[in-house]
Q: What sequence folds into this?
């Protein structure tokens, strides 16, 4: 295994080496904030060659946007920062004492390490459900959801048995957080508006959409009044909201749900998972190698400056970080938190190099937004709560603003403008592999 190690003398004279693991919001914002700093040399490592705007993945899953509309090549984003190097690779281990990260074929030295590898799906000990209930964290997940959603309508169109047809026209979304609410709302809009004239043997308005949530309301992090508005908007789109409902079984043909002492079986061919997350494997690596403490879902409990306790040169940002130094609960795993954390660590590094003491991280709450359907959204700014059309406009412009590259902003804005008036999505592809798979069932 090749090792790239420098002597202490070289380290004193060479640029400060920052290695960033993960090209999501946290890692990317750290890299951009450190860009053009002549005394800093940055290496960004990611298994993918692109940055993904995850908040809009559900629109790829429901055919409103194409994957390329919400993805940007990391090299293109960072091409103007000559001190930033991008590696499409995977970090498999960390050696804190040697200040090295381990890749499959070599090691890289660092002076400061930033870990921003995010989270994945969590099935609460029922990992076998992943085969029949895909989650929504990657482009591949979104494409798989899109395949399942549109194949359901296609197979319902040619099914002659009424019960089997209804099973194809029944969708179950598990989890009523922002992702689940937005996904269920998009399905309702798809069935009741976008597809209603496209089929001849079925009426897509007869589609049944169930949104299941274990607690007593949808959007649990939001104020109760906004949760109630969101539930009403979902019901207007034909979504059946079932709270205090625990999923106890998922098969290819049905979902079993328990509400109190009652158990219900919902025949369905399409189950979509939006009910939980767990930390990426880098959390476990940091626990084993750097002595990090993890919470129950594997996130790293960090210091007020986002460093790992006992490791002042290792920082964790984004969804992988459990930051519980501001308020009663850890900061939520949302894009604005990751962006601010990435920019903060970049500023901290520059202050350290100037010999200045860094201040603790403080998240400036920019609010939370969730869209339910066309002209329907909820916005919680803390000091102001909004719903309806104005909230929907705020949601639209906020997401356009945070898209990374100008061409993405332009394409998405044009696509949304067209969809608003035509109510037609432009990316409803079912790949040949999926069609072959379904025919073989």
A:
């Amino acid at each position: 295994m090749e090792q790239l190690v420098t002597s202490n003398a070289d380290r004193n004279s060479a640029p400060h080496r920052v290695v960033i693991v993960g090209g999501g919001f946290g890692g990317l914002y750290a890299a951009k904030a450190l860009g053009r700093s002549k005394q800093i040399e940055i290496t960004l490592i990611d298994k993918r060659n692109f940055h993904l705007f995850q908040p809009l993945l559900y629109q790829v899953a429901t055919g409103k946007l194409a994957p390329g509309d919400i993805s940007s090549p990391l090299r293109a984003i960072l091409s103007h920062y000559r001190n930033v190097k991008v590696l499409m690779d995977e970090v498999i281990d960390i050696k804190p004492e040697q200040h090295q990260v381990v890749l499959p074929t070599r090691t890289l030295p660092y002076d400061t390490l930033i870990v921003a590898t995010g989270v994945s799906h969590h099935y609460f000990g029922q990992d076998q459900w992943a085969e029949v209930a895909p989650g929504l964290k990657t482009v591949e997940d979104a494409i798989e959801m899109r395949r399942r959603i549109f194949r359901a309508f296609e197979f319902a169109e040619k099914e002659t048995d009424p019960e089997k047809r209804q099973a194809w026209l029944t969708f179950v979304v598990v989890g009523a957080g922002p992702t689940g609410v937005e996904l269920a709302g998009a399905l309702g809009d798809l069935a009741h508006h976008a597809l209603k004239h496209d089929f001849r043997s079925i009426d897509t308005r007869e589609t049944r959409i169930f949104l299941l949530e274990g607690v007593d309301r949808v959007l649990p992090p939001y104020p109760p009044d906004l949760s109630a508005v969101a539930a009403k908007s979902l019901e207007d789109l034909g979504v059946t909201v079932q709270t205090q409902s625990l999923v106890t079984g998922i098969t290819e043909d049905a979902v079993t749900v328990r509400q109190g002492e009652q158990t219900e079986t919902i025949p369905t061919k399409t189950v979509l998972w939006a009910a939980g997350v767990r930390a990426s494997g880098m959390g476990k690596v940091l626990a084993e190698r750097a002595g990090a403490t993890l919470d129950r879902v594997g996130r790293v409990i960090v210091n007020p400056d986002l460093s790992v306790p006992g490791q002042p040169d290792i920082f964790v940002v984004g969804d992988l970080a459990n930051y519980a130094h501001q308020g009663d609960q850890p900061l939520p795993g949302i894009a604005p938190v990751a962006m601010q954390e990435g920019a903060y660590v970049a500023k901290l590094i520059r202050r350290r190099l100037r010999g200045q003491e860094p201040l603790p991280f403080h998240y400036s709450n920019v609010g939370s937004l969730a869209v339910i359907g066309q002209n329907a959204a909820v916005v919680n700014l803390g000091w102001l709560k909004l719903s309806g059309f104005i909230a929907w406009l705020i949601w639209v412009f906020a997401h356009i603003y945070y898209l990374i590259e100008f061409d993405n902003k332009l394409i998405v804005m044009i696509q949304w403008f067209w969809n608003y008036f035509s109510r037609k999505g432009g990316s409803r592809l079912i790949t040949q592999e999926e069609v072959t798979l379904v025919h073989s069932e």
